[in-house]
């Protein structure tokens, strides 16, 4: 495409994805973490975050709450990328720790597995800077009564 053409307006899906990214960034809890959400495509999310010593448990590795939060968020946003009208809620989450992490950039990758009406299932995995898996989880998510459009952080303007 030539460089002199004006940018094309974002599609409805792309606007929804950017609005979900904005929603993630607006959540007060995410001010505690150096992290960034990217909705890669329908049913696929990615969160890059940095593990630092202030997240350690007593044995000097990242506390499990960090694993849970990032796995849950990645799976949640993968599922919510399929839903344009309602905020989803986590109803259950099962996680497995496979390796401790002491620092650096970690990637949480979320993917939708099944469900498109009321209940959604999505999985996520964490990889460290060497590309090794450090954790994985599967969650179920349910449509809430909360309209996405009612949430201040969900901004769909292009």
From TrEMBL:
<dbReference type="InterPro" id="IPR029069">
    <property type="entry name" value="HotDog_dom_sf"/>
</dbReference>
<dbReference type="GO" id="GO:0016289">
    <property type="term" value="F:acyl-CoA hydrolase activity"/>
</dbReference>
<feature type="domain" description="Thioesterase">
    <location>
        <begin position="62"/>
        <end position="133"/>
    </location>
</feature>
<keyword id="KW-0378">Hydrolase</keyword>
<dbReference type="InterPro" id="IPR006683">
    <property type="entry name" value="Thioestr_dom"/>
</dbReference>
<dbReference type="InterPro" id="IPR003736">
    <property type="entry name" value="PAAI_dom"/>
</dbReference>
<dbReference type="Pfam" id="PF03061">
    <property type="entry name" value="4HBT"/>
</dbReference>
<protein>
    <submittedName>
        <fullName>Hotdog fold thioesterase</fullName>
    </submittedName>
</protein>
